[in-house]
């Protein structure tokens, strides 16, 4: 059956140039309880409407092998990362949300430009298939953002700013949030070669049945 042989050859060519199924590993940072700050009059803790959330996405290869992304940006000796360097980092989204407003701290915001008054520390690491450890800080006059993840699967976040990244209830005082870290791996997405081989099987079976019906 020449037609079937040709289909198999075409699928084999795709297989030779394709990799296996893709699957990312996602670390979600889920806040537990309210964000707290100090009342400016009494000093007693009060709840703020600002909420913290975040997500780090690494490849399954990085998760299996372990990873360590460690950068400092802000001083004369630590320039911003290039576009190619940013593209090599795992996807990061740390967000402060209040009402309909959201402020996002991603790789480009943290490491993509050089601001002489901003000092940024950035570290995400894990042993092979191990627990995540992380530490991100932004220090600037009148502003602070600090996020840390501990091996036991919890995180803390501190943030407050007069002008650089102000959020409701977290301007004159530092706000504090805490929560848990969850890890998930979505269903792998088949590569084109896998789909091609599946198609060969379906088409081939259909042609064989048709020929038998005509015999």
TrEMBL record:
Superkingdom: Bacteria
Residue intervals of the Ice-binding protein C-terminal domain: 188-211
Pfam family, one: PEP-CTERM
Keyword Signal: yes
Keywords carried by this UniProt record: Signal
Keyword Transit peptide found: no
This protein's name: PEP-CTERM sorting domain-containing protein
Signal sequence, start to end: 1-23
């Amino acid at each position: 059956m020449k037609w079937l042989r040709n289909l198999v050859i075409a699928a084999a060519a795709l297989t030779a140039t394709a990799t296996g199924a893709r699957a990312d590993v996602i670390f979600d940072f889920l806040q537990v309880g309210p964000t707290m700050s100090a009342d400016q009059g009494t000093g007693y803790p009060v709840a703020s409407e600002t909420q913290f959330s975040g997500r780090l996405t690494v490849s399954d290869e990085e998760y299996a092998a372990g990873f360590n992304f460690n950068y400092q940006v802000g001083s004369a000796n630590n320039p911003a990362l290039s576009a190619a360097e940013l593209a090599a980092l795992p996807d990061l989204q740390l967000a402060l949300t209040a009402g309909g407003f959201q402020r996002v701290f991603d790789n480009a915001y943290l490491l993509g430009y050089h601001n002489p008054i901003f000092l940024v520390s950035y570290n995400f690491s894990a042993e092979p298939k191990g627990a995540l450890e992380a530490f991100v800080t932004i220090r600037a006059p009148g502003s602070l953002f600090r996020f840390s993840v501990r091996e036991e699967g919890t995180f803390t976040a501190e943030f407050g700013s007069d002008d650089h990244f102000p959020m409701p209830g977290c301007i004159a005082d530092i706000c504090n949030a805490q929560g848990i870290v969850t890890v998930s791996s979505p269903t792998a997405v088949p590569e084109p070669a896998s789909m091609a081989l599946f198609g060969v099987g379906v088409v081939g079976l259909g042609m064989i049945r048709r020929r038998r019906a005509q015999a």
